[in-house]
Amino acid sequence: MGVVQAVVVSERETWCLFYYEDGGQRRVHDYFALMPYTPVSLLMQEYSFYRPAMNMSAMCPSGNAGILTAKIWLDCGVADGGRRGKYRAVRCVPALPEGQLRISNERSCGGVRTVTRYSRQAYTNVLGGIMSHDVYHATSVDPDPHTQLEACVRHSNKQVLTPAQLDT
């Protein structure tokens, strides 16, 4: 048995509440909302899980659900990741559009991709396949504009801001 863990950005706030306001204590039912890295590792050790663990992070749970659904479809033969697929909704994209950066490039915006054993010209091949959907999520935003956006949101309820005020 293995473990699949999915994390969304909003869970960061839940972690802050857990440590700083709740003193690291939660009811069992409330604890599941946290789904942290360390407890998942401890859980695997405690119950002798021996299969690989998979961790994903995304802006929204629907993205994680989409990735898992696509992987299930590929594994069950509903789609095959290539042109022969029964449904073309899940398929390998061997090349990104001209000018789009790959996720490994510096300052990349990411790109939706599926790596699968069925493609002859895949970007990379991995055992079991990999999928990503982090094109324009908060994890791909340049920190400087992100900081400016944060400042805008923080002050939006207080006053009307002009573009010049956002640069400060």
Automatic annotation (TrEMBL):
Protein name as it appears in the record: Uncharacterized protein
Organism for this UniProt entry: Mycobacterium uberis
